[in-house]
Amino acid sequence: MALSSDTSKTMPPGARRAPPCTLVIFGAHGDLTKRLLMPALYNLVGNGLLDDGFRIIGVDRVDSTTAQWRDGLADMMQSFTRNPNAEFHPASINAQQWDWLAQRLEYVQADFSDADALRQLGAKLPGNAIFYLAIPSRFFATVVETLGTAGVVTQKEGVFRRVVIEKPFGSDLASAQELNRRVLSVLEESQVFRIDHFLGKETVQNILAMRFGNLIFEPLWRNEYVDHVEITAAETIGVEQRGAFYEPTGALRDMVPNHLFQLFAMVAMEPPNTFDAESVRNAKEQLFEAVTPIDPKDAVRGQYAAGTVEGKPMVGYRESPGVAPHSNTETYVALKLHVDNWRWAGVPFYLRTGKGLGGRRTEVVVQFRKPPMLMFRETETEELPPNRIILNIQPAQGLTVELGAKKPGPEMDLTNVQARFRYEDVFAKSPNVGYETLLYDCLMGDETLFQRADNIEAAWKAVDPVLQAWAKDTAGPELYEAGTTGPRGADELLHRDGRAWYPLDRA
Ligand code: BG6
Known about the structure:
Largest sheet: 9 strands, mixed
Catalytic activity: D-glucose 6-phosphate + NADP(+) = 6-phospho-D-glucono-1,5-lactone + NADPH + H(+)
CATH architecture of the largest domain: 2-Layer Sandwich
Domain Glucose-6-phosphate dehydrogenase NAD-binding: 24-206
Pathway: Carbohydrate degradation; pentose phosphate pathway; D-ribulose 5-phosphate from D-glucose 6-phosphate (oxidative stage): step 1/3
CATH superfamily of the largest domain: Dihydrodipicolinate Reductase, domain 2
Number of domains: 2
Bound molecules: 6-O-phosphono-beta-D-glucopyranose
Strand content: 15-25%
Radius of gyration: 24 Å
Shape: globular
CATH class of the largest domain: Alpha Beta
CATH topology of the largest domain: Dihydrodipicolinate Reductase, domain 2
Strand order of the largest sheet: 16-15-14-13-7-12-11-8-17
Protein name: Glucose-6-phosphate 1-dehydrogenase
Helix content: 25-40%
Keywords: Carbohydrate metabolism, Glucose metabolism, NADP, Oxidoreductase
Distance between the termini: 50 Å
């Protein structure tokens, strides 16, 4: 069935339809497929961006038929309409749009590491194919090697074969290097799409637009004017049912060398020559190479104990399913990064992320130095508040600038005011879950928003001394009560530099 004019007329201006392709999803019954990939594909159908020759083959070990898989996904899509907390929460599911996708679904029951099964699967793939590894990370290398043995990732003239690898990509520098080595013994770098879903967020992509699409920020974006930068990803959710994954992982591995480093790259990298994949990834690499490996003294870890989050009781991390009763896994981390380059020498970058905190906020705060003299010292104004630019990533989306302004009245009294840009005030609300751009870019062969092998390794290299020190340190993380702003050690990290975090618990 061709895309109806109804659905295709929403194609974004200037966009091109992706080439025909079979998307093979390993982990067809998994959470990621249901929660994010299917809604993203549905949204791409709605935008008319998928070709008539697009198909999806779901692969999993679970005993199931195509009809059962498809019906299960259809139910799931409907359930999102009733769940305001789902990443995808449309008012209704458009039947025509869903049918377009549903009739292109096929389920294959197979073991990912069975070369014969993958060979048979290969016979179903006449042309372009993308293999999406939505499976636990311990299978990544084996599955790629098996795809190689089965001969299904060999590209021919005019036919692409690509592999999408989810995070976590390695668990330290050595394992990331080993995984890259094994993957790149089968595939060309240009066939590998290492996902970091933060790069699918509009507000993250917008950081580059703000920085390089406007002249007013760039002259100030350097050590002459910037005092320090804070990058925060605070979550209210706890570990919930993910204890088995989280126990050997912890907040540092889960969030820092991937998501927070991507935010850091967007904020701190030099302007790339163009917006093509290699220029952008070269600019990131140049930045990451300038990061001094983190001194363990500049890293703080915490773990949430029982508390109350947003009015609801939360059990302590150690009481969660799949978690050891004396676990030393950190659910919070704060770090200081030094960047040894011309632009940023002397400007600390403070990174923090944690679960079970009092508020949900992902944001970047660029705090500027104070004016060189206090011109208003004879007046009511004793101390001028510093200027800040706050890049609101989520749930608030936009940009806030904090400025000093004169309070109306006879005295020269300055106060802090905010100038705000909010997405919701300017743009229509999008149903997108963030994977749309990533899937579309992969179909188009655009790797700009995907991580190159060297970028991944450079990020692990920066955090590796901390991982090693923590593995040896039996003292463990500082406990913090769930629903608060995190461990006291994180505040001390900044206090000892004469600074304080931009408050998490503000209105
Ligand atoms: C995932 C982590 O990669 O990112 C989770 O494994 C974390 O622990 C999540 O909650 C945060 O992503 P988002 O898009 O909800 O901010």
